[in-house]
Specification:
The protein has about 70 residues and is mostly helical. It has 2 helices and no strands.
């Protein structure tokens, strides 16, 4: 009789451990999904065309020329 009770107790402990591990894994997966759905960067800057730089004609020519050794 005591061996049956010991077997049942071991089974309950094993099932509780499996349940606890499953809960922790589900919790971690929830945190990962929550972090993945957050926006990576919230840009609140106000940008205008005046912040750009003017490209001179000689810089445009240099940009179009192939690199040496290519």
């Amino acid at each position: 009789m005591s061996s049956i009770l010991l077997g049942i107790l071991c089974l309950i402990v094993v099932l509780a451990a499996i349940g606890a591990v499953g809960f922790v894994v589900a919790l971690k997966m929830g945190v990962i999904v929550h972090q993945a759905t957050k926006p990576t960067h919230l840009d609140t800057g106000n940008y205008t065309l005046d912040q750009g730089r003017e490209v001179r004609p000689e810089e445009e020519k240099r940009a179009r020329l192939p690199q040496d050794g290519v």
